[in-house]
Design a protein that fits this description.
The structure holds 2 protein chains of 2 kinds. Chain A has 2 helices and 8 strands. By secondary structure, chain A is an alpha+beta fold. Chain B contains 20 helices and 36 strands. The chains are: A alpha+beta, B alpha+beta. Strand 8 of chain A pairs antiparallel with strand 36 of chain B, so a sheet runs across the interface.
């Protein structure tokens, strides 16, 4: 919300106040697209313009098959428990994506502490 | 020793008292089974029963099934002895009653719904043959037999005997459906009902289900036993209104299964109708089916008995297309050809052929045949035994008989496999692969290919470079390369001790070695040389050189280069997302990244991680699942370090102090630029050869 107060030169009275509302509603599924970048040995894949359902499916698939780490706009997304596709995980991922429209999701291999 | 409650024993005692009135003799077995909370049920089995008359058998059958094994003692005019009676019962089909199955849809007009999802306890049995009728005195009896497993030592039993004065008698016809329902009355008495329908469709299926759940509804049926399909729709509504609260809940839990079956299986029923000529054609998934022809847009397939073949092999409820149907028919033809028995004494090669009936694909007539020597022909052109189905299938791509004829002739001269290899090259597993690719005998889509072509004068040649090619034994090469691809599974090999013990993995490097050997052998030809004394001598000469082989294998280098370039882009994305800064760190190029816990440096050359301020090493390595290439390791580390407070749960060495003592503990040789070390492999193999 931008609050444009116009104050006259002569006084401190507010003569004209325009309040413009930018409709910064969170973009719903229908409008958001996502880009998923996957790194693996045989080639790097970039999947652009995915909708939220496609994004969820691709991300979940790669985590299940390749045990990838997930970073949404550089921030890690962790799946809880061993069931990647549990309701809680799916709901959490959906919420995260809805809060980050047009996000870049990077799927990488895992690293660990060398002495583990 | 079996023990049971007083109540259970009273029950079986009562059963024995009632049934023993009708039976002369039998072996009595008492079975136990367990219910909830380990409650023990007791069951009486009468084995090897002896009956004097059918009347006695009829009365006995009201309380228990009658095993056929060991049945004896019958004294009746209709049969000389019990064996004759048993033989009469088993005539035609083994049992009168059978489960409804896919085979029964062929020609059976009364089956309009195939129960697949409907729980078995709610499915009636099919009366698959007319029951045996026997007259004794003033009565006629109908016998319905069934196959039983588990209850007795044998698996044949008489389930129902119906007398002509019982309502059920009039409805025990072939093609009808029967269900037995047990009702326990409030008095504790157990009553057995039999209900029959003259067709099995969605309405009668629901009625059977409701009667099973609430047996007192049976009295609403015609003569308390019969469901007429023509009245079933209305009857179903009436019965549904009479369901009690408890019954309704149970019915609602299971009734959807019938609707699911209805949706899935009406297709099969329609196919059944096509088969028995009830309908002339039908359309499924935009494909038109008749008994002998299938059409989709411009593609048609015609064959005698086509629908019968598809009925057995095609899942009409699944995904399919016209080309899949063509594939099924062509494989069927290839199998039939393999089953043709050539008459004994038939002359060998060049003589008469034994052919299958003509089929048509896109109007092109096709006849597959085999001669006495086992040679296969498609329309007079000889083809390889294992390529018959492929050649026939390919006809779906042609709409012109003369074009197809040219194709078949070309296959006759050079097999389809050779055609495909010359057209598309032969892929080999000498590149970096995932575990899944290693497991597959066929290389992945992005595997490098060896290219071949046909030279008019020299025959098959292997492409080395734009301006160089080498003659090759193509058939031999294809066989060897297929074997190498199959064997390249990243498994261990151990060579024989006589050659010097050697072990290793059958990975892409191993495959490259094998291919070098193959190329050398397949590019070696015998030449006739004239010696100085004028005599001629045959000598083997290898036409392929070291440089040729290196040039061919360099395709791997190109693929690797591409992967590394892409990994650089991936890394740059990670750099942007983590706001990493390119710096010089300890004399090397590195990215500096700010985490929540501390600042780090990731050396680009080897992906080692250091605390930026203290310059101390943090031991972070790739996980065994790690599947990256090129600079992916740097990208992963940047992202993890940026979020160190979260990631320290997965990467323990981010917690607490650094681990400088382990700086050289792990050998990590990441790919940065492409090293092409095939030269060593090639030299080693050439030295051996």
């Amino acid at each position: 919300m931008n609050n444009n107060e116009i104050i006259s030169n002569n006084s401190n009275e507010v003569i004209n106040t325009e309040i413009t509302m930018n409709n910064n509603e969170i973009n719903t599924n229908a409008n958001s697209t996502y880009t998923v970048l996957i790194a693996n040995k045989t080639g790097h894949t970039t999947m652009a313009d995915l909708d939220i359902e496609q994004t969820i499916e691709n991300v979940t698939d790669m985590v299940e098959k390749k045990k990838n780490w997930v970073f949404i706009n550089g921030a890690p997304f962790e799946f809880a428990g061993s069931n990647v596709r549990s309701e809680a995980n799916m709901s959490k991922l959906r919420t995260q994506l809805e809060q980050n429209p047009m996000a870049q999701i990077m799927l990488t291999g895992q690293v660990i502490g060398g002495q583990e | 020793m079996a023990t049971a409650s007083f109540t259970e024993f009273k029950k079986i005692n009562k059963q024995f008292t009632e049934l023993s009135k009708h039976i002369e003799n039998a072996e009595i077995h008492i079975r136990t089974s367990y219910g909830p909370n380990y409650y023990t049920f007791m069951h009486l089995d009468f084995r090897q029963p002896s009956f004097k008359t059918f009347a006695k058998m009829h009365l006995f059958s009201k309380g228990a099934m009658i095993p056929l094994h060991g049945l004896h003692g019958l004294q009746c005019k209709a049969f000389k002895n019990s064996q004759e009676f048993w033989d009469a019962l088993s005539a035609q089909t083994r049992f009168t009653l059978a489960n409804i199955s896919k085979d029964n849809t062929k020609g059976l007009k009364t089956l309009r719904l195939m129960p697949e999802n409907t729980p078995e306890s709610y499915r009636p049995l099919l009366i698959q043959k007319a029951p045996l009728e026997v007259t004794e005195g003033n009565h006629t009896y109908r016998f319905l037999t069934v196959g039983v497993s588990g209850n007795y030592n044998v698996n044949r039993a008489i389930q129902i005997i119906s007398r002509e004065d019982e309502p059920l008698y009039d409805y025990l016809d072939e093609g009808f459906y029967l269900m037995q329902v047990v009702e326990e009355l409030k008095t504790g008495k157990v009553v057995q009902h039999n209900i029959v329908a003259n067709a099995y469709d969605i309405n009668t299926a629901h009625i059977f289900m409701m009667c099973r759940i609430q047996p007192d509804l049976i009295k609403m049926l015609k003569r308390e036993c019969f469901i007429n399909t023509h009245e079933a729709e209305l009857l179903r509504l009436k019965l549904a209104k009479k369901l009690s609260v408890v019954s309704k809940r149970k019915y609602n839990e299971v009734s959807d299964t019938i609707d699911t079956d209805y949706r899935k299986n009406t297709t099969l029923i329609v196919i059944g109708k096509l088969l028995d000529d009830s309908v002339a054609s039908t359309e499924i998934q935009n494909i038109t089916f008749t008994k002998s022809k299938v059409t989709y847009e411009q593609v048609t397939i015609e064959a005698e008995g086509l629908l019968s073949i598809l009925h057995d092999q095609l899942n009409f409820n699944g995904e399919f297309d016209i080309y899949g149907i063509c594939g099924i028919l062509s494989q069927h033809i290839e199998k039939q050809l393999n089953n043709i028995t050539v008459p004994e004494g038939a002359a060998a090669e060049g003589s008469a052929r034994y052919g299958l009936p003509e089929i048509k694909v896109n109007g092109i007539p096709i006849v597959a045949s085999v001669n006495a020597a086992g040679q296969r022909f498609v329309n007079d052109s000889r083809v390889n035994k294992d390529e018959v189905s492929k050649v026939i299938h390919r006809a779906s791509c042609y709409h012109n008989a003369s074009d197809y004829k040219l194709f078949v002739k070309s296959i006759s001269k050079m097999s389809m496999k050779f055609h495909d290899v010359v057209a598309n090259g032969m892929q080999v597993k000498i590149h970096d692969m995932t575990k899944e690719e290693y497991k597959s005998p066929i290389p992945g889509l992005d595997a490098p290919s060896l290219k071949f072509f046909i030279d008019k004068e020299e025959g098959y040649k292997l492409e080395v470079a734009a301006d160089r090619s080498v003659k090759i034994h193509l058939g031999r090469a294809i066989r060897r390369l297929e074997t190498i691809n199959k064997k390249t599974d990243d498994g261990w090999y151990y060579s024989s001790p006589t050659n010097g013990y050697r072990s290793g993995r059958r990975n892409n490097h191993w495959a490259a070695e094998q291919i070098v050997t193959t190329l050398v052998e397949c590019c070696t030809f015998e030449e006739e040389n004239t010696l100085p004394d004028g005599s001629k001598r045959k000598e083997s000469r290898c036409l392929i050189t070291r440089d040729d082989i290196l040039a061919i294998l360099s395709i791997v280098k190109d693929k690797k280069k591409e992967a590394i370039e892409r990994s650089k882009i991936f890394m740059e994305t990670a750099v942007k997302l983590t706001n990493a800064e390119l710096v010089e760190f300890m004399g090397k190029r590195a990215y500096k990244v700010q985490g929540s816990l501390r600042t780090y440096a990731v050396v680009i050359e080897n992906a080692k991680v250091y605390d930026f301020d203290t310059k101390q090493y943090r031991c972070i390595v790739n996980d065994h699942h790690y599947d990256g290439a090129g600079y992916d390791d740097v990208a992963t580390r940047l992202l993890a370090l940026k979020n160190d407070s979260v990631m320290q749960s997965s990467v323990s060495t981010l917690r607490g102090v650094a681990q400088p003592q382990y700086e050289n503990a792990h050998a990590h040789n990441p790919e940065r630029e492409v090293e092409f070390n095939m030269g060593n492999i090639v030299d080693a193999v050439l030295a051996k050869n």
